[in-house]
Amino acid sequence: MEKNQQELNSPEIPAEQEQYLLETVPLIKRIVGRKLHRSFISASDDISQKVFLKLWKWISKSKKELTGEEWQKLANTATQNEIKTFYSHKSNKEIACIDDQEVISKNSFGLIEGDTEKEVNSLAMRAWEEIKKLSLRQKYALLLQKQELILYLVASKCCQIQEIAEHLQLSKERFLEVYQLLPLPDEKISEIYFEAAKEKLTTKQIWEARSKARTKLHNVLE
């Protein structure tokens, strides 16, 4: 964990590039899940994290600005290379990799097909304004259950990564570490919540907090 924090403690990169980097995580996990043989499935999180950290270090040093499509292609290539490297160290257990042309569609962010960009951004802004009003435990219960919600908010440009981290009372570096692991089970959400609030919550309390948060958002956005 300490090593990851040091690697993420890099110079600031443009907010738009941070957004694109976060959007690669579902793609990375999807490719690893499809290409990694079930015998090695326990290594999937480590491989995904290595790819993410390499992309982070690369953009921090290169200072290049890529489009969303270029980021997806870069993530796809980096992930497949990492998997090949993994297999190269498994001398008698190599498994052929199948080409994968996975891409992230707008629906990956929870957007509704047919909505205009203006409508989507307006809805995301309303959702974010209501999320900011939630209690800390409700924010944790809601935001750390799914990557899609965070992607939806960031991709709609109604908030930035730093803002979400601040509302969870986490450093940006710690938030990025947590983000790579989403979705989290309630037991793990409770552990991370304790880091920020120094308050222990049961899984039942996490579930109740999420239910209340969803009800508040539903009442505002319906």
Per-chain topology:
Elements: H1 2-8, H2 15-23, H3 25-35, H4 44-62, H5 68-88, H6 117-133, H7 136-143, H8 147-155, H9 161-167, H10 172-181, H11 186-197, H12 203-221
Helix pairs in contact: 3-4, 3-5, 4-5, 6-12, 7-11, 7-12, 9-10
Distinctive features:
globular, 222 residues, single chain, mainly alpha
Question: Can you put this structure into words, describing what you see?
Answer:
There is one protein chain. With 222 residues, the chain is mostly helical. Helix content is 67%, strand content 0%. It has helices at residues 2-8, 15-23, 25-35, 44-62, 68-88, 117-133, 136-143, 147-155, 161-167, 172-181, 186-197, 203-221. Helix 3 crosses helix 4 (44-62), helix 6 (117-133) packs across helix 12 and helix 7 (136-143) runs antiparallel to helix 11. It starts with a helix and ends with a helix. The relative contact order is 0.12. Residues 91-115 have low confidence and may be disordered.
